[in-house]
Amino acid sequence: MKPRILPIAVIGGLLLAACGTSNAPTSSSQQGGSVSLWAEWSSGEQAAFTAALSPFESQSGTTVNYSSKGSNIDTVLAAAVAGGAPPDVALIPDPGTLQTLAKQGKITDLTSILSGLSSNYGSAWNTLASYNGKLYGVWFKGANKNTIWYNPAEFAAASISSPPKTWEELIQDAATLKAAGVTPFSLCTDIGWPVADFWQNVYLKTAGADKYNQLSAHSVKWTDSSVTTAFTTMAQLVGTSSNLAGGIQGSLSNAYPACVDKVFPKAGSQPQAAMVFEGDFVATEITGNSKNYMPGTTGSGGASCTTDPSATPCYNFFDFPAPSANSANSAAIQGAGDVAVVLKDTPQSEALIKYLAGPDGAAIWAHLGGFASPNKKVPASAYPDPVSKGIAQALVGASSFVFSLDDLQGTWEKNMWQDLLDFLKNPSNVSSIEATMDQQATAGLGH
Amino acid sequence: MAAGSLRRGHPLSPSVAVSTSAGTPLADAGVVPVSRKPAGGGRRDQVGSLLFLAPAAIWLLAITIYPVIATFRNSVFDETATSYVGLNNYKAIFSTASILVNFRNNVIWVVIFPFVVTFLGLVFAVLTERIRWSTAFKTIIFMPIVFSATASALIWRTIFDLDPHVGMVNAAVQTASDWVNPPGLYPVDVSAGQSVAALASSGLSPGASGSLQSTSTAVAGDTVELGLIRINAATLQVVGAQTAVPPSPSSGAISGLVYRDFSPSNPTVRGQLFPDELGLPGLQLTLLRSDGSSAGTTATDPHGNFRFAGVGSGSFRVQLDARNFRSGFTGIFWLGSQSLTPTSHLSQTAQALLSVPLVDLAMIVAYLWMWAGFAMVVIGAGLTSLNRELLEAGRVDGATEGQIFRRITMPLLSPVLVVVVVTMIINVLKIFDVILNMAPGSSQGDASTLALAMYNDGFTGGIHSGLSSALAVILFLLVIPAMVSNLRRIRG
Predict the structure, then answer these.
(1) How far is A189 from chain B (nearest CA, A)?
(2) What is the ipTM of this complex?
(3) Which domains does chain B have, with CATH numbers?
(4) What is the β-pairing status of strands A34-39 and A89-92?
(5) Model-level pTM greater than 0.80?
């Protein structure tokens, strides 16, 4: 199959290029033609992405035929590749798919094409886009799950002037918040995935990215001491019911985004907790609750934040802290992202991938909001507010970057969520939960 | 595919009803008529009827018989249905605690629901016969059955919500509870992990039954400074707290101060009175003699100061009464997985088999609301077809209404009641959508039934078609007795 598909793909690309050239504007500096592009973004995100691509279209004269494939783009792309009709360029939300396609020889080695541009990204990102030491992709968009969101007014009520930088400070601040009568945390554990995100962050920060990837592949057992450490570390916070809004029971009935609303309530209600953990998408929920919420630690015109949400409340985040003994892991980030790969090597697709690897397109989307780029060259001024700037800076500076572990667990992902919820219900029961998890991982992954 | 057909409506009874009877018409059309009607045209009739039967028969084979066979086949294969694994899937089902939970929940549903719903249906049917606006009443009782089960489940999920501001049931309990037991000015929510003892910061220790008392004793002329923490800013606003003023001694009296031991300028220092700390007003205090009896009561003023005047000799402690910290009702987690049977000391497997999670009962209540109307209508139809002469004969013979109901109505109705019970047993064995939509994620694992497990293993996330098919086969076998009994009844 392989030798037959490639020529067809090349011919197809040439045909497309030929057709495009004949329709293209006459300017000689322009390449013209067209390039087909698949990504998961639709509606608002699609509009922002299209805006980010418009300078490329006007400068090169190349038409980008964008097609949104939604969240199951991995499946759709695999089918298109198997059927011999892939797009020229695709943005995929999964490094595993990049590895598979590279192994099958279905995507183009970009090492020489991007030789001058790969330095725009930190090594963590280039490693994630590589297979066998060759670069196959460009991380255009990143998502950051290393974020604990806090209500600065609640921190101020407890006289906490700056957010915690280590896990120990976080525990200490939780105690100070309680002394001031503020419940430290709101937990969204009506369902399994938020507690999995939380646990995975704790594991990443205590055990490091290498162990994290080994555990994900189940080459480290779930009964390993590093797993126990993560559980006992997490129990320092969630094992004390009074640290949680509504206690354990209230947390177990607390759905996402209700947990966010408890920290950043709609106008007229009081916050019930000071902090909530989830990824960078929490910002959308906060600003959706009230247009008054200001990003950062001070309100409009430098006014201080207030507990009265109808005045000028603020929101901000701090990086999920690592224990001081594991400070080497403090810049390790759990998150997600979209990597651009070339499936048909045409001059147009090469031009597009170079554009995506540069800062211009990303800066446009960054300015429109709801976007963070791991690209070093995207200027901080492109971000509209200090919070989105901070999220992007954390991505750029990531010492290592890992994807959500639960998504890679196949059949036993749901069991894993249930086990983590069982841990919340009974945080002293760690060894029995670990044994169950290891059994389920073995059954689910087949090793 | 068989899994899909198991989920909706009453697929099992009709499908098997049709498939067993599918054999009979074929035989009738083929063999019996020929022997009965040897005259001309027999063979043509036979071919004709076979031709007419063929589409339906093929259709049945394709959508009923094939999926059943394929499900049996997949149940002895691995998760991708590629390699044969023998009875391993069945072994896994009966040896895994988290799967045994599904059987337990099916048992809970089957033991409780069919009988309660039939009883309610009977009560409604008998009573609506005798009231004036019976049609309106019947319409209201029957209405939930026309709602989608998903919508009903979502409505009930809200009704049972933990937060009394959202959940109707908890709101009702809260209103009643707070009326009987009004919450204090400084409520401590024990269910959320808070405790009165944790409020004590300086000069205080836990006292009797949820109160706090001064650690050291005082005599007339002494002053007492008592510090509390974990008092939040919103509470301070509500009670109108003002700057704490150090108490001044006066002879013959014990005077003192209760203050919030949290200084914004020194957030981590305890037990020291700073100028930016606030007094706690409205606290109910009791002066305790050394034997624990009361020597007087008072309350703190807006600056947190208090004074017990005219104190006699002896040493005393100051008590902060428990009612100051009484929490309002904060909600029962009806949809939680806390067990109604004490099983926490048992092994994991025993727990899976023996605990009865509260969420099951909440869902049964919701399901009763949905199906009581159906039971009422079926039983009501049975009631109207009763032979009235027997009832009248009973009345003439001087039987009371109770006797007539027990001795005449019930026996005559019993065939109908059995049909309702059996139909409801089949119905709840397959119960699925209510659990999926009503149980929150955190208790879904403890509320799951065979049908839901089958769906989760076969159709969501990581797919295991072998396990899912094996669950479908077990569910099928469990439904057969109820189904056969219903078929016999329909035929007989």
Answers:
(1) 7
(2) 0.76
(3) 88-171+355-491 (1.10.3720.10), 196-325 (2.60.40)
(4) parallel
(5) yes
